[in-house]
Amino acid sequence: MLELHRIAETDFSIDRAVDEEAVKEARMGNVVIEGHLAAWILKDIADVRIYLKADIRARSQRLSARDGKSIEEALNEIRAREESNRRRYLTIYGIDINDTSIFDLVIDTTYVNAEKVVDIVYEYVYNVLHSKGKF
Question: Looking at the chain, which runs of residues are DSSP E strands?
């Protein structure tokens, strides 16, 4: 996975192709799109923009458990991937991915399990779409 990030640092067509596809899918409507830049790329299309975060210790433990890596390897991978993303998105789009002000809802998942996060997201999205008259 880190190899793709390294390639993308010099070949911006990779990120641009992913983002163009996201826009195309979003314009079809009634979709959920997940991606590092989705909130910014789809800011004029999306009804709801949600950011999920967790502290780096929790993320490294999750990555370690999922991929069978040591905590240290997971920490290093996360840091390298995040720095690669930050540099590319600043260069390509002028977007600071550390600025979460564009999001409608930010959820810290550090101490919340996946099922509870789904409940929170469902409740929020349901209320927003209902208020906008989407159903």
Answer: 50-53, 105-108
